[in-house]
């Protein structure tokens, strides 16, 4: 009970501090005033309590803000940080139904491991895309296989599709930015650092399986991006059906079968 009360008091204190600062952020036109950010509140203060859902919901909030893409990369990252803090500290924040991730993400995906926490602080803009893609991967796997299982073809599909759409998202995000020339190398590299970080605490055959399927997904993503997600899903399904991915059977890695 003492721990619970302490957490509530801590959240309320941080919320009051953050609210004072955020009053000046009535719209995305705040960009020119970012230098006055309250340095007393940082991602470090809340990183251990953030979830994948918290981060993905920020992606959903800002992806249709037309002025967002006019910001520089540094401004985008700063804006994402402020949104993460604002949403976390706002106890009355209501996430619309359909935007929540809990129905798709188990704890192993919704909770951040130490390597993911490090990356969130370094690449906040990438982080919100990464966790949103996690939700999409679970949702699509559920649609294609009727569920999300472990070590089987559905598991292989989920990881392959996840990496493929991440490459697609990271590539398309560059196109929708400030007119910069999109880099496929960046899209693949960013995807690899995040999905490899997800395996930070895993080991043995499951880790080997996931890393192998992750690589296949990045290859598919690089081949098809930019593309519709349905096109990528079909390409990944063909790869799973043709045995290009791997699953675990009788304690060894074998080609996938459907």
Task: Spell out the blueprint of helices and strands.
Layout: H1 2-22, H2 43-46, H3 52-62, H4 73-89, H5 107-110, H6 114-122, H7 124-145, H8 153-175, H9 184-198, H10 204-224, H11 229-241, E1 246-249, E2 252-255
Antiparallel strand pairs: 1-2
Helix pairs in contact: 1-4, 3-4, 3-7, 6-7, 7-8, 8-9, 8-10, 8-11, 9-10, 10-11
Q: How would you explain this protein's 3D organization?
A:
This protein has 258 residues and is mainly α. It has one domain. Helices cover 62% and strands 3% of the residues. The chain contains 11 helices and 2 strands. Strands 1-2 form a two-stranded antiparallel ribbon. It is globular, with a radius of gyration of 19 Å. The termini are far apart. The N terminus is likely disordered.
Descriptive keywords:
two-stranded antiparallel sheet, 11 helices, 258 residues, disordered N terminus, 62% helix, mainly alpha
Short structural description:
The protein is mostly helical. It contains eleven helices and two strands. It is globular and about 55 Å long.
Order of helices and strands: HHHHHHHHHHHEE
Q: What is the count of distinct domains?
A: 1
Cα distance spanning the termini: 50 Å
Number of helices: 11
The major pleated sheet works out as: 2 strands, antiparallel
Please state roughly what percent of the residues sit in beta strands, choosing from under 5%, 5-15%, 15-25%, 25-35%, 35-45% or over 45%: under 5%
Q: Give the mean pLDDT.
A: 83
Unreliable spans? 1-9, 17-39, 97-105
Q: Choose one word for the global shape.
A: globular
Helix content: 55-70%
Structural class: mainly alpha
Radius of gyration: 19 Å
Side-by-side strand order of the widest sheet: 1-2
What is the tally of beta strands? 2
């Amino acid at each position: 009970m003492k721990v619970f009360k302490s957490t509530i008091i801590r959240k309320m204190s941080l919320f009051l501090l953050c609210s004072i600062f955020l009053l000046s952020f009535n719209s995305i036109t705040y960009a020119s005033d970012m230098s006055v950010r309250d340095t007393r509140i940082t991602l470090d203060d809340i990183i251990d309590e953030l979830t994948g859902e918290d981060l993905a919901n920020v992606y959903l909030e800002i992806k249709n803000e037309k002025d967002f893409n006019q910001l520089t990369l540094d401004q985008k990252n700063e804006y994402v940080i402020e949104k993460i803090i604002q949403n976390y500290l706002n106890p009355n924040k209501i996430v619309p139904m359909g935007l929540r991730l809990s129905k798709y993400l188990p704890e192993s995906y919704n909770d951040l491991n130490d390597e993911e926490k490090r990356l969130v602080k370094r690449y906040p803009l990438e982080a919100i895309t990464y966790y949103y893609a996690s939700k999409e991967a679970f949702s699509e796997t559920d649609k294609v296989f009727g569920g999300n299982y472990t070590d089987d073809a559905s598991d292989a599909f989920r990881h392959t599709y996840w990496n493929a759409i991440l490459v697609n998202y990271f590539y398309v995000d560059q196109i929708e930015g400030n007119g910069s020339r999109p880099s496929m190398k960046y899209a693949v590299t960013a995807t690899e650092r995040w999905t490899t970080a997800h395996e930070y605490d895993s080991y043995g055959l499951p880790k080997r399986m996931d890393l192998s399927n992750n690589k296949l997904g990045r290859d598919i993503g690089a081949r098809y991006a930019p593309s519709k997600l349905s096109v990528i899903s079909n390409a990944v399904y063909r790869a799973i059906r043709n045995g290009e991915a791997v699953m675990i059977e009788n304690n060894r890695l074998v080609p996938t079968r459907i």
